[in-house]
């Protein structure tokens, strides 16, 4: 019975123009519908996790949540501050800010300890995430004050202006990434195919899949809110898998065309490619989707957004490889046949088509595995285990505002703010909710807590207590004179949670309480991820095993695939720790080490790598299984299958690596780490695991690799060959 993959490809090949127009209409429809419904962005509540999240929810219920705030510094350009000129500038600034509809409150100016700087805090109306869209009006007024008072230095910072600066920097970085990725990908494909037309096909289909996925992601955001990185991951994964899937299919069609020597029609060649590589693409795509879907188990809005973008772009890439690609290959094939016919009539030989043979390079690279599989396996495993050793020192943290690039103006002002006003570096918000009748008791215990904090050198300044109008919710704000990523700031949080809170408000019957604030957030998020990691990783291992079992009906290959993926992921993470938790590579990769790895990086690596590794696993083992089905002994099938697939795996790995390496040039440290670790993982997987470890293991296993069901030795089904007269 013909598979659905072949039937769809056959239909597209027989009606190529209809298939192409249909695909373009689908892309246009996705973009049109997406633009019509718009993007539903995540709210502040969507980000809440752990105790900090629960405390923020309590504060929001009592309308005591912390407002997004901007800080404006007024100082002399040099020398002592002119008090009169500074007062005039502050009055001008205050008047301007109070006129803005976005502003909730303007605080009285505060002078620094040395008297050189005045600080004005401006609170913005609405939620934190909405402040990014409102802060532009405040920045404009600050710039206007600076122009009116050129003798002074008037500068603005704050979470909203920093966030807006990060978004602008990310957009600029992504534009640079595209300028690097697209030309390098085109050159790689040009080398692989030797034809500009054939090289452009994978790139154009990948870009069209990305466009369709962007539109679909807008619609999906109404089910799973977008956090602002959906388009980034669609671009990254769309180029990687979109080009790969087209490459697998296209290389097989070219190989079969060269092998047939003009005896098969373009439609028959497309059908044959769909029966082999087409099936591998579908299985690979489903494996990536299933692996990525495990991110939803993390119960995190950022991971859910990443998963949604990846799933959508992978599915659209698979659909394009089943519909638009066969149509394009048919049209290009017919053109090739017409040219061959014209050349034959003129008595000129037909142009040689590359048949996918590996030349001398890959047989030489495979020689250790084929001649000494046991030694190759042991040495390769030891090498990967050696790369994984630094993983023992892995330190996971949430990347705070302190890690942002100082190329952002607001971050440079932030550093000045911390230097001139150290008592404002960190603020803890203690939130308590109890019955309204216990309001006085809650206030008393919060005062007792404030007295304990005042005697603790980790805290500074006066405490501030607020109570909601319904007297059910109260908050206490305490300040810490240390940076948010410092050991002292984390120690102050521990004192509150484990000592001061249980000894005070913890004694109130029925009271709910917690600590929120930046330090609490940066502490609770990694803890939340640690709690979800066993569930996600367990599901990921199970999905990988089941997908391999479905593809090849082999328990041994399923176990082997899981083990190799774990090994390559561990080695890549070890390299990441070696590079980013130390300072030796800072100048080389343009970053400032935080001594830690972003909390989202390891889990994202495991999920994406397990999915992408299935590309190579399915494609390589499919070629081996195909040879076994045709009656070739397993040992010979392993060698021949890997030689046949080595070239396309290399081209795919280069394309993927180029996409991921381009993210290393981004300023955002977590994106830089993700780009580096994914590039390292793909290279290790393509050049060590698939070329050395996998063939060595399969050669040692022999027929046992197919346990419990060895493939029956029958001819691989293909299309009904239709001879083509080429003269």
From TrEMBL:
Annotated Gene3D superfamilies: Multidrug efflux transporter AcrB transmembrane domain
Record localization: Cell membrane
Coiled-coil features, chain-numbered ranges: none
Cross-referenced Pfam families: MMPL
Domain SSD: from-to ranges: 557-700
InterPro entries, per database record: MMPL_dom, Mycobact_MmpL, SSD
Protein name: SSD domain-containing protein
Protein source organism: Streptomyces cellostaticus
């Amino acid at each position: 019975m013909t598979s659905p993959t072949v039937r769809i490809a056959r239909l597209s090949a027989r009606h190529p123009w209809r298939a192409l127009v249909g695909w373009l209409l689908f892309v246009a429809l996705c973009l049109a519908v997406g633009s019509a419904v718009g993007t539903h962005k995540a709210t502040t509540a969507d980000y809440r996790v752990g105790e900090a999240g629960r405390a923020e929810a309590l504060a929001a219920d009592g309308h005591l949540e912390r407002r997004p705030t901007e800080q404006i510094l007024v100082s002399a350009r040099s020398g002592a501050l002119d008090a009169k000129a500074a007062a005039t500038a502050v009055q001008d600034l205050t008047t301007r800010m109070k006129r803005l509809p976005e502003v909730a409150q303007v605080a009285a100016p505060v002078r620094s300890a040395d008297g050189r700087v005045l600080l004005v805090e401006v609170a913005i109306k609405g939620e934190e995430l909405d402040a990014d869209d409102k802060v532009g009006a405040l920045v404009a007024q600050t710039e206007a004050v600076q122009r009116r008072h050129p003798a002074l230095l008037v500068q603005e910072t704050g979470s909203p202006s920093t966030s807006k600066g990060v978004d602008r920097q990310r957009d600029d970085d992504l534009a640079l990434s595209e300028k690097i990725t697209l030309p390098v990908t085109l050159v790689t494909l040009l080398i692989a195919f030797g034809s500009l037309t054939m090289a452009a096909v994978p790139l154009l289909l990948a870009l069209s899949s990305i466009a369709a996925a962007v539109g679909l992601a807008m619609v999906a955001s109404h089910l799973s809110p977008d956090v602002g990185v959906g388009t980034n991951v669609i671009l990254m994964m769309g180029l990687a898998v979109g080009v790969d899937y087209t490459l697998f299919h296209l290389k097989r069609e070219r190989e079969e065309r060269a092998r047939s020597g003009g005896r098969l029609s373009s439609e028959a060649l497309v059908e044959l490619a769909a029966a082999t590589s087409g099936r591998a693409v579908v299985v690979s795509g489903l494996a990536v989707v299933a692996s990525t879907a495990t991110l939803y188990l993390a119960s995190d809005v950022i991971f859910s957004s990443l998963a949604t973008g990846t799933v959508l772009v992978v599915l659209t890439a698979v659909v394009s490889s089943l519909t638009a690609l066969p149509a394009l290959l048919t049209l290009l094939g017919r053109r090739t046949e017409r040219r061959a016919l014209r050349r034959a009539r003129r008595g000129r030989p037909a142009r040689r088509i590359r048949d996918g043979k590996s030349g001398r390079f890959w047989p030489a690279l495979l020689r250790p595995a084929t001649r000494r599989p046991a030694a190759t396996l042991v040495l390769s495993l030891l090498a990967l285990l050696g790369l994984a050793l630094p993983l023992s020192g892995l330190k996971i943290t949430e990347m705070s505002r302190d890690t942002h690039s100082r190329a952002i103006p607001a971050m440079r002002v932030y550093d000045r703010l911390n230097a001139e006003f150290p008592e404002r570096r960190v603020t803890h918000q203690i939130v308590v909710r109890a019955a309204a009748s216990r309001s006085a008791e809650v206030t008393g215990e919060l005062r007792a807590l404030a007295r304990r904090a005042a005697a603790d050198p980790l805290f500074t300044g006066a405490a501030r207590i607020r109570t909601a109008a319904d007297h059910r919710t109260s908050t206490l704000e305490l300040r810490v004179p240390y940076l948010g990523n410092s050991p002292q700031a984390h120690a102050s949080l521990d004192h509150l949670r484990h000592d001061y809170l249980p000894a005070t408000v913890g004694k109130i019957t029925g009271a709910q309480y917690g600590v929120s604030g930046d330090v609490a957030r940066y502490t609770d998020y990694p803890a939340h991820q640690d709690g979800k990691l066993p569930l996600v990783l367990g599901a990921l291992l199970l999905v990988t095993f089941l997908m391999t079992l479905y593809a090849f009906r082999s328990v041994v290959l399923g176990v082997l695939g899981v083990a190799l993926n774990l090994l390559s992921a561990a080695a890549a993470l070890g390299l990441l720790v070696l590079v980013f938790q130390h300072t030796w590579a800072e100048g080389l990769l343009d970053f400032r080490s935080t001594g830690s790895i972003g909390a989202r990086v390891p889990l994202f690596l495991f999920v994406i790598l397990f999915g992408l590794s299935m590309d190579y696993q399915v494609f390589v083992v499919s070629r081996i299984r195909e040879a076994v089905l045709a009656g070739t002994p397993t040992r010979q099938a392993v060698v021949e299958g890997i030689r046949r697939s080595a070239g396309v795996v290399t081209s795919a790995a280069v394309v993927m690596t180029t996409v991921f390496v381009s993210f290393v040039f981004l300023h955002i440290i977590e994106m830089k780490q993700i780009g580096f670790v994914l590039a390292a993982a793909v290279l290790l997987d393509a050049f060590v695991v698939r070329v050395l470890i996998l063939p060595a293991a399969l050669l040692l296993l022999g027929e046992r690799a197919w346990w419990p069901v060895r493939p029956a030795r029958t001819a691989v089904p293909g299309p009904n060959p239709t001879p083509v007269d080429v003269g």
